[in-house]
Amino acid sequence: MVNISNNFTTAQSLTLNSAAQSASLFKVGQVVTANIEQIQGKQVTLSIGSQTLVATSKLDLQESGLIQVRIKQLQPTIELAIIRAPKQNNSQQLQNVLQAALRQVIPNQTALPQAFQQISLLQGLPASLLGPVNQLLEQIVKSQIPLSGSALKQKMADSGLFLESKLKQADKPNLNHDIKSQLLSLRQQAEALNIRSPSPQIAQLLGSLNQAINRITLQQLQLYENPNITSLDLPSSHKKQDEQDYIEFRKHSESGSPRWEVLIDLHLPIGEMSAKLTLNQQNEFNCFLWCETETLERSISEHLTQLKKQFEHQNLQLQNLLIVKQKPTKTEKSTQVALIDIHI
Questions:
Q1: Confidence band for 22, pLDDT divided at 50, 70 and 90
Q2: Global pTM?
Q3: Which domains are present in the chain?
Q4: Which residues does 266 contact at the CB level (< 8 Å), separation at least 6?
């Protein structure tokens, strides 16, 4: 008789016609490859090398095909333990899918401000596309001043990062202001028109649309990989296209007590300002400000009292409000997770 134990815990006895002959083929501790050829109820037919063995199992055998078994004992019965080869788990399969998607979108994507600037400069587009293009630019490129917390929340909701979630959660979701939805719709119109009446202008438009869509898809993939960091472009009118205002949300849980941080970089006419806000579980804020120039530092210093009053007006408990000499550090991009770039 041969006993096969599954995962070394559940004994499964397999009765062989020539147990003694089979025992001479094995050594205790030996690992061999077996091929499960057929399972009929509790009866299992398997082959090891040139030997075909018929056994009866006490429990239903879940394995099939090639398996590895370890010889646990030869006397008084032959007992084998199935070694389940580490199957590729869902996490590894997901990583493979993510990597394949990243390889596809990364080479053909660009920051949304650049993509929409390219679209706004296109000349000679067909009249049927001008309306949708202008509508898209009207929503996206116009800045909202001042950018309040509620406005930022709405911009994030309409950024395109959550399009698929909206489609899943509602039968008829409102996608009128969702950037990715509008990009996909405009691309569909441009592709249909390009088939009927191809032109270089439509081809350029499609190129910019694909880059913008891929950018949002890239950010969605990065958000899935690391939910603690949201990668997001919020394009709007900006006189200096080479300057990027920046905001990053970070969550720290190392100490067991979650702590939130917000890093903000603003490019002002008299220099760059960086701010770091921290929020602990007691809802206490700390605010640290760094100024690129002395002129900016003097201007900020003159308005610190006003900023403190704004915290008080919002019923926010402010522990510290300081101007610091060292610029707050951003998250390293070597983590392969893009940060949040907001263009205001």
A1: low
A2: 0.58
A3: 2-83 (2.40.50.140), 90-227 (no CATH), 246-342 (3.30.750)
A4: 245, 272, 273, 274, 275, 344
